[in-house]
Amino acid sequence: MEILKEIMNKSKNTVINEEYVMIGGKEVDKKSKIEIGDQSGKFYTLEQLAFFILNKDIMYTQYLKKCKEQNISPIFYTDQKLITEELKKVKEDVTVCRYDSPDEIYFSRHDYSWVSKLFSEKNKNVSFKTSLEPYRIVVPSSLISFINLSNIEEILISGNVIKKSKLVLDKLKTNFNGKKFLIEDTIDDWTSEDWKSLVGIFVDGSSFQINEWKIGDIAGLFSKIPVFYLYEEGNESTEALDGYKINRIKVDKGTVKKEDLDKIWRLIMGVCESNGNGL
Protein backbone atom coordinates (compact mmCIF):
# COMPACT_ATOMS: atom_id res chain seq x y z
CA MET A 1 0.00 0.00 0.00
CA GLU A 2 3.03 2.29 0.21
CA ILE A 3 2.79 3.29 -3.44
CA LEU A 4 -0.86 4.24 -2.92
CA LYS A 5 0.09 6.46 -0.01
CA GLU A 6 2.68 8.06 -2.26
CA ILE A 7 -0.02 8.75 -4.87
CA MET A 8 -2.23 10.28 -2.21
CA ASN A 9 0.58 12.54 -0.99
CA LYS A 10 1.52 13.51 -4.55
CA SER A 11 -1.95 13.51 -6.12
CA LYS A 12 -1.35 16.86 -7.83
CA ASN A 13 1.71 15.39 -9.53
CA THR A 14 0.17 12.04 -10.46
CA VAL A 15 -0.84 11.40 -14.07
CA ILE A 16 -2.16 8.27 -15.79
CA ASN A 17 -1.10 7.82 -19.41
CA GLU A 18 -1.28 4.96 -21.92
CA GLU A 19 1.47 2.87 -20.31
CA TYR A 20 2.39 4.32 -16.95
CA VAL A 21 1.20 6.02 -13.82
CA MET A 22 3.48 9.02 -13.35
CA ILE A 23 3.98 9.69 -9.64
CA GLY A 24 5.96 12.85 -9.04
CA GLY A 25 7.91 12.27 -12.26
CA LYS A 26 8.50 8.56 -11.57
CA GLU A 27 7.11 6.08 -14.13
CA VAL A 28 5.39 2.94 -12.81
CA ASP A 29 3.72 0.28 -14.98
CA LYS A 30 0.00 0.96 -14.67
CA LYS A 31 -0.83 -2.74 -15.11
CA SER A 32 1.11 -3.67 -11.97
CA LYS A 33 -1.01 -5.76 -9.60
CA ILE A 34 -1.34 -4.50 -6.03
CA GLU A 35 -2.93 -6.36 -3.13
CA ILE A 36 -5.23 -4.30 -0.93
CA GLY A 37 -5.61 -4.85 2.79
CA ASP A 38 -3.58 -7.21 4.92
CA GLN A 39 -3.22 -10.50 3.02
CA SER A 40 -6.76 -10.11 1.65
CA GLY A 41 -5.97 -11.90 -1.61
CA LYS A 42 -7.67 -9.08 -3.53
CA PHE A 43 -5.69 -7.42 -6.29
CA TYR A 44 -6.27 -4.37 -8.47
CA THR A 45 -4.07 -2.76 -11.10
CA LEU A 46 -2.16 0.37 -10.20
CA GLU A 47 -4.21 2.19 -12.85
CA GLN A 48 -7.50 1.26 -11.11
CA LEU A 49 -6.22 2.24 -7.68
CA ALA A 50 -4.60 5.48 -8.81
CA PHE A 51 -7.75 6.52 -10.69
CA PHE A 52 -9.85 5.81 -7.59
CA ILE A 53 -7.55 7.84 -5.32
CA LEU A 54 -7.57 10.78 -7.74
CA ASN A 55 -11.39 10.69 -7.79
CA LYS A 56 -12.17 9.53 -4.26
CA ASP A 57 -13.93 12.77 -3.30
CA ILE A 58 -16.58 12.71 -6.03
CA MET A 59 -19.98 10.99 -5.91
CA TYR A 60 -19.90 7.24 -6.53
CA THR A 61 -22.17 7.55 -9.59
CA GLN A 62 -19.85 10.21 -11.05
CA TYR A 63 -16.87 7.96 -10.36
CA LEU A 64 -18.52 5.08 -12.26
CA LYS A 65 -19.28 7.41 -15.16
CA LYS A 66 -15.67 8.60 -15.33
CA CYS A 67 -14.42 5.00 -15.18
CA LYS A 68 -16.61 4.17 -18.17
CA GLU A 69 -15.38 7.22 -20.07
CA GLN A 70 -11.73 6.32 -19.42
CA ASN A 71 -12.31 2.58 -19.98
CA ILE A 72 -11.03 1.76 -16.49
CA SER A 73 -12.64 -0.98 -14.40
CA PRO A 74 -14.03 0.51 -11.16
CA ILE A 75 -13.01 -0.55 -7.66
CA PHE A 76 -15.69 -2.69 -6.02
CA TYR A 77 -17.72 -0.66 -3.50
CA THR A 78 -16.73 -2.64 -0.38
CA ASP A 79 -13.07 -2.55 -1.38
CA GLN A 80 -13.24 1.23 -1.76
CA LYS A 81 -14.00 1.52 1.95
CA LEU A 82 -11.12 -0.81 2.77
CA ILE A 83 -8.71 1.31 0.72
CA THR A 84 -10.06 4.59 2.11
CA GLU A 85 -9.69 3.41 5.71
CA GLU A 86 -6.10 2.35 5.02
CA LEU A 87 -5.24 5.67 3.38
CA LYS A 88 -6.68 7.64 6.29
CA LYS A 89 -3.75 6.42 8.33
CA VAL A 90 -1.43 8.45 6.12
CA LYS A 91 -2.68 11.68 7.68
CA GLU A 92 -2.49 10.47 11.24
CA ASP A 93 0.19 12.13 13.30
CA VAL A 94 2.38 9.74 15.21
CA THR A 95 3.78 11.00 18.48
CA VAL A 96 6.90 9.28 19.71
CA CYS A 97 7.00 9.03 23.48
CA ARG A 98 10.27 8.66 25.31
CA TYR A 99 10.51 7.38 28.84
CA ASP A 100 13.38 7.45 31.26
CA SER A 101 14.68 3.98 32.01
CA PRO A 102 14.02 2.90 35.60
CA ASP A 103 16.95 2.56 37.92
CA GLU A 104 18.24 -0.95 38.41
CA ILE A 105 17.07 -0.99 42.02
CA TYR A 106 13.46 -1.12 40.83
CA PHE A 107 13.90 -4.36 38.90
CA SER A 108 12.73 -7.49 40.68
CA ARG A 109 15.34 -10.13 41.47
CA HIS A 110 12.74 -12.91 41.28
CA ASP A 111 12.37 -15.19 38.28
CA TYR A 112 8.85 -14.97 36.86
CA SER A 113 9.58 -16.83 33.63
CA TRP A 114 7.40 -19.71 34.87
CA VAL A 115 4.31 -17.52 34.31
CA SER A 116 4.75 -17.24 30.55
CA LYS A 117 5.68 -20.93 30.43
CA LEU A 118 2.47 -21.82 32.26
CA PHE A 119 0.29 -19.96 29.77
CA SER A 120 2.17 -21.21 26.73
CA GLU A 121 1.81 -24.82 27.91
CA LYS A 122 -1.86 -24.36 28.68
CA ASN A 123 -2.76 -22.67 25.41
CA LYS A 124 -0.36 -24.19 22.89
CA ASN A 125 -3.08 -26.43 21.45
CA VAL A 126 -5.76 -23.75 21.47
CA SER A 127 -6.59 -22.10 18.16
CA PHE A 128 -8.22 -18.69 18.16
CA LYS A 129 -10.78 -17.68 15.57
CA THR A 130 -12.01 -14.14 15.19
CA SER A 131 -15.79 -13.95 15.24
CA LEU A 132 -17.65 -11.64 12.90
CA GLU A 133 -20.73 -11.56 15.12
CA PRO A 134 -23.15 -9.98 15.00
CA TYR A 135 -23.76 -11.29 11.49
CA ARG A 136 -25.63 -8.89 9.23
CA ILE A 137 -28.74 -9.42 7.14
CA VAL A 138 -30.12 -6.73 4.82
CA VAL A 139 -33.83 -6.28 4.02
CA PRO A 140 -35.76 -3.72 1.94
CA SER A 141 -36.36 -0.35 3.58
CA SER A 142 -39.78 0.30 2.05
CA LEU A 143 -42.83 -0.17 4.30
CA ILE A 144 -44.83 -1.46 1.35
CA SER A 145 -42.29 -4.16 0.55
CA PHE A 146 -43.41 -7.76 1.00
CA ILE A 147 -40.60 -8.19 3.52
CA ASN A 148 -38.95 -5.56 5.74
CA LEU A 149 -37.81 -4.94 9.31
CA SER A 150 -41.37 -5.21 10.62
CA ASN A 151 -41.85 -8.88 9.69
CA ILE A 152 -38.44 -10.40 8.91
CA GLU A 153 -38.01 -11.86 12.40
CA GLU A 154 -41.32 -13.75 12.22
CA ILE A 155 -40.46 -15.02 8.74
CA LEU A 156 -37.08 -16.36 9.81
CA ILE A 157 -38.51 -18.01 12.94
CA SER A 158 -41.74 -19.57 11.67
CA GLY A 159 -41.95 -18.93 7.94
CA ASN A 160 -45.14 -16.90 8.42
CA VAL A 161 -45.26 -13.82 6.20
CA ILE A 162 -47.41 -11.26 7.97
CA LYS A 163 -47.62 -7.91 6.24
CA LYS A 164 -47.26 -5.14 8.81
CA SER A 165 -47.24 -1.38 8.48
CA LYS A 166 -45.49 -0.90 11.82
CA LEU A 167 -42.34 1.16 11.49
CA VAL A 168 -39.25 -0.45 12.99
CA LEU A 169 -36.58 2.17 13.49
CA ASP A 170 -32.88 1.72 12.92
CA LYS A 171 -31.83 -1.93 13.32
CA LEU A 172 -33.16 -5.20 14.63
CA LYS A 173 -30.97 -7.20 17.01
CA THR A 174 -31.86 -10.85 17.44
CA ASN A 175 -30.49 -14.35 18.01
CA PHE A 176 -30.98 -17.36 15.76
CA ASN A 177 -29.47 -20.83 16.03
CA GLY A 178 -27.12 -19.70 18.80
CA LYS A 179 -25.70 -16.79 16.81
CA LYS A 180 -26.21 -13.04 17.04
CA PHE A 181 -27.67 -11.21 14.05
CA LEU A 182 -28.15 -7.57 13.18
CA ILE A 183 -30.87 -7.00 10.58
CA GLU A 184 -30.73 -3.66 8.79
CA ASP A 185 -32.39 -1.91 5.87
CA THR A 186 -29.61 0.54 5.08
CA ILE A 187 -25.89 0.17 4.38
CA ASP A 188 -24.97 3.85 4.16
CA ASP A 189 -22.61 3.91 7.14
CA TRP A 190 -21.07 0.46 6.76
CA THR A 191 -17.34 -0.04 7.16
CA SER A 192 -15.29 -2.75 5.45
CA GLU A 193 -15.62 -4.86 8.62
CA ASP A 194 -19.41 -4.55 8.47
CA TRP A 195 -19.38 -5.84 4.90
CA LYS A 196 -17.36 -8.89 5.95
CA SER A 197 -20.13 -9.87 8.39
CA LEU A 198 -22.90 -9.74 5.76
CA VAL A 199 -24.47 -13.21 5.46
CA GLY A 200 -27.80 -12.67 3.73
CA ILE A 201 -29.77 -10.23 1.58
CA PHE A 202 -33.53 -10.09 1.07
CA VAL A 203 -34.74 -8.16 -1.98
CA ASP A 204 -38.21 -7.04 -3.02
CA GLY A 205 -37.65 -7.11 -6.78
CA SER A 206 -37.62 -3.33 -7.14
CA SER A 207 -34.84 -1.41 -8.84
CA PHE A 208 -35.21 1.23 -6.11
CA GLN A 209 -33.73 -1.02 -3.42
CA ILE A 210 -30.69 -1.92 -5.52
CA ASN A 211 -30.12 1.63 -6.78
CA GLU A 212 -30.40 2.95 -3.23
CA TRP A 213 -27.24 1.03 -2.29
CA LYS A 214 -25.18 2.88 -4.94
CA ILE A 215 -23.05 -0.20 -5.58
CA GLY A 216 -21.56 -0.68 -9.03
CA ASP A 217 -20.90 -4.42 -9.04
CA ILE A 218 -24.23 -5.83 -7.84
CA ALA A 219 -23.60 -9.10 -9.68
CA GLY A 220 -20.30 -9.54 -7.83
CA LEU A 221 -21.98 -8.90 -4.49
CA PHE A 222 -24.86 -11.30 -5.20
CA SER A 223 -22.42 -14.02 -6.26
CA LYS A 224 -20.83 -14.05 -2.79
CA ILE A 225 -23.85 -13.48 -0.54
CA PRO A 226 -27.03 -15.60 -0.53
CA VAL A 227 -29.84 -13.42 -1.88
CA PHE A 228 -33.52 -14.24 -1.36
CA TYR A 229 -36.59 -12.99 -3.20
CA LEU A 230 -39.93 -13.90 -1.57
CA TYR A 231 -43.00 -13.66 -3.77
CA GLU A 232 -46.63 -14.69 -4.02
CA GLU A 233 -47.92 -16.39 -7.14
CA GLY A 234 -49.18 -13.78 -9.57
CA ASN A 235 -47.25 -10.97 -7.89
CA GLU A 236 -43.74 -11.87 -8.99
CA SER A 237 -41.69 -8.87 -10.11
CA THR A 238 -38.26 -9.85 -11.34
CA GLU A 239 -37.24 -7.37 -14.04
CA ALA A 240 -34.76 -5.64 -11.73
CA LEU A 241 -33.36 -9.05 -10.71
CA ASP A 242 -32.83 -10.52 -14.17
CA GLY A 243 -29.30 -11.83 -14.66
CA TYR A 244 -28.46 -11.94 -10.95
CA LYS A 245 -27.91 -14.99 -8.76
CA ILE A 246 -31.14 -15.04 -6.73
CA ASN A 247 -32.90 -17.67 -4.61
CA ARG A 248 -36.58 -17.32 -5.44
CA ILE A 249 -38.81 -18.41 -2.56
CA LYS A 250 -42.53 -18.83 -3.21
CA VAL A 251 -44.91 -17.83 -0.41
CA ASP A 252 -48.04 -19.98 -0.40
CA LYS A 253 -51.02 -18.74 1.61
CA GLY A 254 -48.82 -16.47 3.69
CA THR A 255 -46.30 -19.16 4.55
CA VAL A 256 -42.82 -20.14 3.44
CA LYS A 257 -42.59 -23.91 3.07
CA LYS A 258 -40.45 -25.68 5.64
CA GLU A 259 -37.98 -26.94 3.01
CA ASP A 260 -37.58 -23.39 1.68
CA LEU A 261 -37.10 -21.95 5.18
CA ASP A 262 -34.51 -24.66 5.83
CA LYS A 263 -32.78 -23.67 2.60
CA ILE A 264 -32.66 -20.01 3.65
CA TRP A 265 -31.04 -20.93 6.95
CA ARG A 266 -28.69 -23.47 5.39
CA LEU A 267 -27.30 -20.84 3.02
CA ILE A 268 -27.07 -18.14 5.70
CA MET A 269 -25.44 -20.44 8.25
CA GLY A 270 -23.05 -21.65 5.58
CA VAL A 271 -21.61 -18.14 5.32
CA CYS A 272 -21.54 -17.83 9.13
CA GLU A 273 -19.66 -21.10 9.54
CA SER A 274 -17.10 -20.13 6.91
CA ASN A 275 -16.46 -17.06 9.11
CA GLY A 276 -16.72 -14.54 6.33
CA ASN A 277 -18.04 -13.94 2.86
CA GLY A 278 -14.79 -13.00 1.14
CA LEU A 279 -15.73 -9.34 0.64
Automatic annotation (TrEMBL):
Its main location: nucleus. One of its GO terms (molecular function) is RNA polymerase II complex binding. Keywords: Nucleus, Transcription. Residues 137-265 form the Cell division control protein 73 C-terminal domain. GO terms for biological process: positive regulation of transcription elongation by RNA polymerase II; transcription elongation by RNA polymerase II. GO terms for cellular component: Cdc73/Paf1 complex. Coiled coil: none annotated. InterPro entries: Cdc73/Parafibromin (IPR007852), CDC73_C (IPR031336), CDC73_C_sf (IPR038103). It comes from the Eukaryota. It is found in: Nucleus. Transmembrane segments: none annotated. Belongs to the CDC73 family. This is Cell division control protein 73 C-terminal domain-containing protein.
